């Protein structure tokens, strides 16, 4: 089981992702999950598993590349690939992180991480690395 006081690494196949998401949400039900990784590492795939663990139909989940945010009944999904921290603040998106619920931010940078820590918003950072037949997930909590 994942615990909010540790940093751990997991190598998982796609068939193990739903179970991983369920375990993560046992100890982290609200706050911000920042997902980091190269293009096509599996950030949106993990987002779909996290949303499904919250009761959202996976087929309803898509990357908010151009709209920047989608909301699925208390689950907020951000794609910040083209946005730095200043543009998040200018667009009024930073205030959303104070709302109750689970916030999943693909491509969240260190400035976002530091701002969330400053306001003591629960934070989970997951770095994703693509391997040949699986993914490596480095999970830490702040």
From TrEMBL:
<keyword id="KW-0067">ATP-binding</keyword>
<dbReference type="InterPro" id="IPR003442">
    <property type="entry name" value="T6A_TsaE"/>
</dbReference>
<protein>
    <recommendedName>
        <fullName>tRNA threonylcarbamoyladenosine biosynthesis protein TsaE</fullName>
    </recommendedName>
</protein>
<keyword id="KW-0819">tRNA processing</keyword>
<dbReference type="InterPro" id="IPR027417">
    <property type="entry name" value="P-loop_NTPase"/>
</dbReference>
<keyword id="KW-0479">Metal-binding</keyword>
<dbReference type="Pfam" id="PF02367">
    <property type="entry name" value="TsaE"/>
</dbReference>
<comment type="similarity">
    <text>Belongs to the TsaE family.</text>
</comment>
<keyword id="KW-0460">Magnesium</keyword>
<keyword id="KW-0547">Nucleotide-binding</keyword>
<keyword id="KW-0963">Cytoplasm</keyword>
